[in-house]
Amino acid sequence: MSQYKIIFTGPVGAGKTTAISSISDTPPVKTDATASDMTKSRKASTTVAMDYGVMNLPGGEKVHLYGTPGQERFDFMWDILTAGGIGLILLLDNSRADPFQDMRFFLEAFGRFIKDTAVAIGVTQMDVSHQPTINDYHKQLQALGLKPPVFAVDAREHNDVSLLVQALLYSLDPGLVGE
Amino acid sequence: MKKSGPVAIKVALYGMDTRSYKTLELFLKGPCRAIAEVVSDTDAEIDIIDADFATAGDILENCRQQHPERPIVLLSLQTLRIANTHFVQKPVTVEQLTAVLTQTGTKKQLPEARAEVIDKPLTEPNQSAQPSVQSVNTAPLPKPVDKKRSAFEANEGGYTTFLGHLSDIDFSDPSQLLNASFEPKNYLLSYVLSAYKVAGHQGTAQQLNSMWKPLLIFPQIRKIWLDADDKQLRVFAGMEQNKLFAGNISLSPVSTDMSQLERAADKFQEMEAFIWKLSIWTSKGRFPVHIDPNAPVFLKHWPNFTRLMLIPDALRMAALLANGPRTPLDMVKLLHIRPQYVFAFVSACHSLGLLGQCQRQADIIVQPEPPKPNKKQNLFSKILHKLRGD
User: Fold this and answer.
1) Taken in order A34, A36, A38, A41, is the CA torsion positive or negative?
2) A62 CB near a chain B CB, below 8 Å?
3) A167 lies in which domain range?
4) A127 within some domain
5) Chain B residues with CB-CB distance to A under 8 A?
6) CB atoms within 10 A of CB B139
């Protein structure tokens, strides 16, 4: 049976675990642990290995949803996770000190994977911090020569996460039509 | 002693809230000199329907079925031409209403006309409530042969009511092409865009006044304030302003603090989302006259779709235009979608400043290759299907 995967990445607290929960058919397997380092100030617990969810498709196919650990010291896992992936969902926390730096970091870290596939960016916590705006993100991306979809996202909302994944799929194939 | 004089015509009123109902009842009694009397549905000789009411199409259909012999008068802000109905333009005047009621009250509908009413029910009841677009008419397109559902049908809500239906236009014929265009300057949209520019430039809140409701623009927080629901806005968006209202439109600065204190919080809307939907409702599936549908356009960046009203196939169109320049008519062919979806999308992107028009001769001369289908297209389709909860 064919197995596929979509990768969710982003900094600590950006909502990767919640986003996976929003579209997963099964409760996601969480690997959170009590934060004991610099992440403590942002989250009481954080993902130290990876999150996992699944979408069951007709015909028995499955799409695995993997959330990368937010902490950079686990970046050795990222290459393993992305192998054979459909595309990347990058979630950014707008309330962090420098979300642009976060964005650049993850786009660079997953650069090869994005080049082979596509990326869609969701910006969370925009209700907490209105700045920077979505347009500001586009300006930054333009300087990097990229034009991915960037949406304001509430990771708890199925519709927001669904649209983001749909945009990723259409970026890969604009001619795509739902069955 | 019994008062002699003409007998009042018995009318029933539909599609009105209590206030409008009472107002029209008093209007008929007073200014119209009791030419008509409001009675119950069963006793009426004429049905009067507010065609701008949300479910006016259903009401019209129901009236026709219940009383096919009974004349129907439609009231609307915009000119309507619906078979076997009589029309009175809002704001209603004594002369107009009296003339129509006298005319309809004294003659019965012809048998042929009745037959036509029965033979031609409205296929999409809600659409009859929408103001008709002068140049882009009501003949529905044949149903697409492709059984696959568009993103709109599957996931983007039932919005055909405001997109209109382009009849079979030959887009290679410039004279026909013009029938699918609109002049933004003639609509509320252009006044809102201008007001937003002024507000942004001056850095102060502005109030856009018209014969309709005041619209307040707050550039600092990128919000507008309007005491109207989407149904009302949709009707007003499609009305040509220069005919009735242009002379009454003005812009005045307002105190931000005072305005915010006095205004109901739930009437605020995000400016971007407001302009987006206003553009779509103004476009009604037509393209802005200054955009050539045969010239390539591109997207500067994706719209923020999670916070905008989605229109049919919007994500597909964005993906295609983000990839490279395409003419709007190429988009229709490449994505196999209806022209009005493309034109509404192009209109909305243009209003938000997201649309670029190619200046380089190379972009105009060299047509880009059609996007190649992804090898995993079948899988992606299944994922889409799943995400939309079909």
Assistant:
1) positive
2) no
3) 3-172
4) yes
5) 146, 148-151, 154-155, 299-302, 304-307, 315-320, 322-323, 334-336, 370-371, 373-374, 376-377, 379-388, 390
6) 10
Which residue among B301, B335, B374 places its CB closest to the CB of A172? B374
Q: A58 near A28, Cβ under 8 Å?
A: no
Closest by Cβ to A179, choosing from B148, B318, B371 = B148
- Distance between A86 CA and the closest CA of chain B, angstroms: 9
CA of A139 vs chain B CAs: smallest distance (Å): 9
User: Which one of B336, B380, B382 has the shortest CB-CB distance to A173?
Assistant: B380
Written as six digits, the tokens of B59 are 């009401």
- Chain B interface includes A143 (CB < 8 A): no
Stated pTM of the model: 0.70
Q: Do B306 and A178 touch (CB under 8 A)?
A: no
CATH number at residue A67: 3.40.50.300
Q: Which two tokens stand for residue B169?
A: 């236009």
- CB contact (8 A) between residue B151 and residue A58: no
Tell which residue, A57, A24, A20, A86, has the closest CA to residue A179: A57
Amino acid at B94: V
Which residues, given as ranges, of chain B have pLDDT below 50? 1-4, 108-160, 165
Q: What is the DSSP string of A103-167?
A: HHHHHHHTHHHHHHS-EEEEEE-TTT---S-HHHHHHHHHHTT----EEE--TT-HHHHHHHHHH
Give the type of residue at A148.
Answer: P
All domains of chain B in start order, with CATH: 9-129 (3.40.50.2300), 151-181+278-387 (no CATH), 184-271 (no CATH)
Cβ A23–B385 below 8 Å, yes or no?
no
ipTM of the complex: 0.89
Determine contact: A58 vs chain B, CB below 8 A: yes
**If we measure between CA atoms, which residue out of B160, B159, B181 comes closest to residue B169?**
B181
Of A4, A23, A135, the CB nearest to B387: A23
Q: Which residue has the tokens 């003409």?
A: B6
- pLDDT tens digits, residue range B82-133? 777 888 887 787 888 888 888 776 654 433 333 333 233 223 333 333 333 3
Q: What is the DSSP letter of B326?
A: B
Comparing C-alpha atoms, which of A120, A117, A55 is closest to residue A87?
A117
Phi, psi of A143 (to 5 degrees): -65, -25
Question: Structural domain tally of chain A?
Answer: 1
Give the model's pLDDT for residue B155.
37
B216: nearest Cα among B264, B181, B179: B264
